[in-house]
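Please produce the structure of this protein holding zinc ion.
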Amino acid sequence: MTLDPDLVATLQAAVDARRDAILELFRELVRTPSETHPPGGDEGPAQAIVAARMRAIGLEVDVFEPTDVPGVESHPGWWPGLDYAGRPNVVGVWRAGASADGARPGGRSLILNGHIDVVPAGDRARWTHDPYGAELVDGRIYGRGAADQKIGIAAMLEAVAVLRELGLRPAGDVIVENVVNEELGGYNGTVATLARGYTADAAIVTEPTGFAVAGAEKGGQVYLMRVPGEAFHHAVWERGSSAIDNAIYLKAALTAWEQQRQVETADDYYYGDRARACHPRAVHADTVWYLRAGDPEIMANPTEAELCFWVDHLPGEDREAMLRRFETHVLAAAAAHPFMRGHPPVLERAVMRPFTGVSVAPDEPIIRALQAASAATLGRDVPLIGLEAATDAMIFNEYSDIPAVIYCGGDLSLAHAPDEWVHADDVIRSTQALALAILEFCGLAE
Ligand SMILES: [Zn+2]
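Below is the modeled complex.
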């Protein structure tokens, strides 16, 4: 598909003309903290801004807390134990498709889905910019959630606004979903939109992909591994066994698992080909983010080490079978160790919702529409990739018939870190690209 060059030029000019207003909305969203703090979150004030903008644009606006949706807690995608008081989803609908009397046939409908919540700003001393200042410095806008993913929230709202302003009516309905509680494995905001009945022919999840089109994302499991040791006075440590040394030994087993899986997954469409994934290995298992062992007061071998890590699995694989194989692999490595042979580690699947790898077929119309829109916006082709992280696309692909892909400007590697930022230009280009993708996917009404 190629977009009409006149249409592209018209849209780009219109978005450029609205640049200041688009950036002001984006910065207002960044200045408004919307942190997830399980079991709760502070998304309410930012969602009020979103709802007001949707009303000004002229969308039908639906504001509802996830737990207000009848039956949502028995939806197979629901994860229990979270509190949604004061944390509404905000959905805006542009009924552009089939007329009620059937006189105007509907084109393809599209969901744009983004999460308004952000991870906490963390230690302010690590930021050189105010995490809620939305400071604009040398073309960059700084703040928690700038990349992940208030750029996507602002871009999808303004994409719809500019189409309406230009009188460019898509041939199908466009549904803009601003959900709460995606971060830290929440995902119930999007589950609630499905339970409320929102559906379309495809969905774009507007997480930052640096304008690449992500047709897949990984699944995974968080583990807490307890590794034993045996305490002896540090002067005769060799009579015992250090849990730290044993943890390091087992970390090598995690690396070996990655290498074995690398070979097994070499033919995977999205993750076997290194051109489609940004990491050197297809499957991660040795990224330990937490290690605790020993007691500074005792001067003896530590008797226990605790490690937390994440083990990937790829779309199309049997998740449970993969995890059982992984656990068997670690216990076999322990069985070959002189101390752990008799004192095996304990692998606990840490309590977080299960993440299942998902993918859509590379020839899905939504992928082709986004590639065309992105190329027209950037003046270059963009790659089709498999995303390393999990997103709400998992909820659509796992629990509905709606093929969901991930796409927007912004750099995922800057997310969840101090001094998170995006290029101001990328906010504008994301708006252009999403507006073009809507027209390319839904078609332009007569
Ligand atoms: Zn995100």
